[in-house]
């Protein structure tokens, strides 16, 4: 396509994967890489259920390749960390509109690649749930990965799937992940160096992404076990989590039955219906139910009259850290403002030991929760 090729790195599961993609691009030494990502923020940041399309976003920069997210881009009624990420890193970041279904996504990827003269597409997933078969009981966020996997396989551009921070999203068990690796015959790459990870972490430590930030900490030599989801095994931080593994996108698309199931879709509602019919968790449905159950009259909040230690009495016994998302879910926080207050409180009350996105459990002893929410 071009005598001066560039890589197009796509965050497969949403905003957080872009953090890992930035670290991966710097580690590989890619020349002027281009990035693309779908937009579906957690309900605490964007109360409207489901993914957002380009018509839902203000101040995009339109190019022949599509819509780019810039520092002035805004999400009406919600908040996305992506414009601030662009401001701090200076990357070229395109918005992928998943409301158009897999067929629309494939067209968008082709347009971006043509306009940016990219001859290789790297689908980046922090955590590794993209290499699931699709029937694993712990799989809770399959929609975006399945759509991007199917679209990448169909767009006609040479592509790979790269997983970093294997297991750090807590969705696949180590055994399930190992089974996928054996079936897909993936190739282990050079670990993301501590210096690259430290540089990216300095820029993006504020970013609300557990799997990507945990990977950056692991690359810097931080170790431990982190309880990120109630009732599941803690995820393990160790240096191996910073080693990317790659495989051909077509092989992964054949392995992941969900990608095949949604490959002919032209809208997101159909994707959601197909995945529900296959027995998958509907993230969209969960968000709608949560919004419907939210009381109109303010209720007594969980933190009132309790210590943080009391509230986190169900932490896994083998964990030595607790994830921030685990904390804010336990506190039933509902807004970005409350999240910001919590982060400020953790940083001030536990200065020297709180490292986003986790807090060591030994820091919780006898601490009263006084965060002024």
SSE layout and pairing:
Elements: E1 6-11, H1 15-28, E2 34-38, E3 61-63, E4 66-69, H2 82-89, E5 92-96, H3 101-116, E6 118-126, H4 143-154, E7 159-164, H5 174-184, E8 187-188, H6 194-204, H7 210-219, E9 224-227, E10 235-237, E11 245-248, H8 249-255, H9 257-262, H10 268-277, H11 283-293, H12 308-311, E12 321-323, H13 324-330, H14 336-349, E13 358-360
Helix pairs in contact: 1-6, 1-7, 3-4, 4-8, 6-7
Descriptive tags:
nine-stranded mixed beta sheet, alpha/beta, 373 residues
Task: Write up what this structure looks like.
There is one protein chain. 38% of the residues lie in helices and 15% in strands. It starts with 5 loop residues before the first strand and ends in a 13-residue tail after the last strand. Strands 3-4-5-2-1-6-7-11-8 form a nine-stranded mixed beta sheet, sandwiched between helices. A four-stranded mixed beta sheet has the order 10-9-12-13. The chain is built from 14 helices and 13 strands. It is an alpha/beta fold. It folds into two domains: 265 residues, no CATH class; 56 residues, no CATH class. The longest helix has 16 residues. Strand 9 and strand 10 form a beta hairpin. Helix 1 packs parallel to helix 7, helix 3 packs across helix 4 and helix 6 runs antiparallel to helix 7.
């Amino acid at each position: 396509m071009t005598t001066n090729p560039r890589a197009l790195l796509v965050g497969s599961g949403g905003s957080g994967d872009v953090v890992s993609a930035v670290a991966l691009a710097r580690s590989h030494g890619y020349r002027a890489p281009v990035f693309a990502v779908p937009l579906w923020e957690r309900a605490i940041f964007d109360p409207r259920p489901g993914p957002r399309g380009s018509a839902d976003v203000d101040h995009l920069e339109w190019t022949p390749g599509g819509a780019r997210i810039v520092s002035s881009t805004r999400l009406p009624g919600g908040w996305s960390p992506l414009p601030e990420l662009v401001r701090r890193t200076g990357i070229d970041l395109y918005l992928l509109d998943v409301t158009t279904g897999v067929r629309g996504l494939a067209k968008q990827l082709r347009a971006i690649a043509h306009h940016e003269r990219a001859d290789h597409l790297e689908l980046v997933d922090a955590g590794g749930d993209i290499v699931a078969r699709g029937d694993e009981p712990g799989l809770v966020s399959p929609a975006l990965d399945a759509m991007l996997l199917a679209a990448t396989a169909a767009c006609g551009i040479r592509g790979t799937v790269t997983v970093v921070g294997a297991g750090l999203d807590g969705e696949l068990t180590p055994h399930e992940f190992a089974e996928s690796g054996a079936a897909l015959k993936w190739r282990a790459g050079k670990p993301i160096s501590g210096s690259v990870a430290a540089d990216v972490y300095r820029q993006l430590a504020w970013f609300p992404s557990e799997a990507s930030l945990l990977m950056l900490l692991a690359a810097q030599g931080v170790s431990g076990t982190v309880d990120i989801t109630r009732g599941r095994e803690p995820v393990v931080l160790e240096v191996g989590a910073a080693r990317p593994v790659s495989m051909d996108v077509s092989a992964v698309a054949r392995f992941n039955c969900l990608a095949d199931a949604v490959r002919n879709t032209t809208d997101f509602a159909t994707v959601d219906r197909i995945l529900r019919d296959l027995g998958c968790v509907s993230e969209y449905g969960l968000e709608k139910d949560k919004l419907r159950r939210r009381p109109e009259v303010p209720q007594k909040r969980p933190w009132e009259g309790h210590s943080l230690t009391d509230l986190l009495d169900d932490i896994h016994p083998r964990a030595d850290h607790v994830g921030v998302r685990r904390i804010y879910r336990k506190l039933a926080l509902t807004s970005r403002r409350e999240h910001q207050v919590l982060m400020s409180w953790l940083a001030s009350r536990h200065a020297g030991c709180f490292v986003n996105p986790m807090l060591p459990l030994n820091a919780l002893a006898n601490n009263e929760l006084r965060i002024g929410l």
